[in-house]
Amino acid sequence: MVVLSQPLVEKFSHIRTCKHNTSSGHVYTGIIPVIDLLDPEANTLIIKACQEFGFFKVVNHGVPIEIITKLESEAVKFFNLSQIEKDKAGPANPFGYGSKRIGSNGDVGWVEYLLFTTNPELAHQKSITIPGNSLLFWALVNEYINAVRNMGCMVLEKIAEGLRVEPKNLLSRMLRDEKSDSCFRLNHYPPYPELLQALSGRNLIGFGEHTDPQVISVVRSNNTSGLQISLKDGTWLSVPPDPFSFFTNVGDSLQVMSNGRFRSVRHRVLANSLKSRVSMIYFGGPPLSEKIAPLSCLMEEQDERILYNEFTWSEYKKSAYKTRLGDNRLSLFEKKTNPAQ
């Protein structure tokens, strides 16, 4: 019998676990919508995916593979550094290096990360110290962000066309705005082979269940599984990894702008006990002053009830920072129905 030392037990005692059973964690390769951006029917298919899942895989995305692999290589180099070296890029407040702590309200996970704003001119971004060849690292980050932002804008323009709203850049302009409050995150979920016996078949939760507050999120990971999305009935669906494709999440803001037509997908990441998982996420956000509300052009087409009160992105962001990771942040902004007279 192997007895774990007390320091090792304490190492993960504050990290939540879940049972990875076949009913909620099976990999269904045929369910996740796959969108070929070169497909003439892509507009329609994206709309359907946003309505049914709030999530879809993107192929023929136009982002060069070398941009992806070069940045992943630098990310792996960083996360393989000693803890002392990595800590030089932190603590995350909110940008910089962080480990296990997610946000400021008590959420934790089996994850370490680098979080950056996509505006490289901001002072706190320049103060983040990346050990090694920092010039190369920042050049690769900015190159990747520009490429993925362009792809995300293409997706949003196809959504606008699919919804028949004008102008075509009604949604994408928020990401292209020089004041766009977007951010970029590199996540590393370390393996934990020494903990297998103690966990008795359960998985460490790398990043707890949540929705993304922004407009859309664009995710890419290495070939290690772990990402799961919640279906409408609450079932957790494992997403097969594909290092050559991207996955797009509908965010809270887009759910509001579509007046609930689209669903902001609830998702989580389970850490892999034997393999390291590295993911790169672009969170496409609007400018802080942007007003978020159901699109008036959608409301004019049919007599439907407006589900959400108008708010600015700044107001929603401040509200979100006060909540726990898994909270329903949009509930505070839902329009209340008047009781029948």
Automatic annotation (TrEMBL):
One of its GO terms (biological process) is coumarin biosynthetic process. It holds the Pfam family 2OG-FeII_Oxy. Its EC number is 1.14.11.13. It catalyses: gibberellin A1 + 2-oxoglutarate + O2 = gibberellin A8 + succinate + CO2. Pathway: Hormone biosynthesis; Plant hormone biosynthesis; gibberellin biosynthesis. Coiled coil: none annotated. InterPro entries: DIOX_N, IPNS-like_FE2OG_OXY, IPNS-like_sf, Iron_ascorbate_oxido_reductase, Oxoglu/Fe-dep_dioxygenase_dom. This is gibberellin 2beta-dioxygenase.
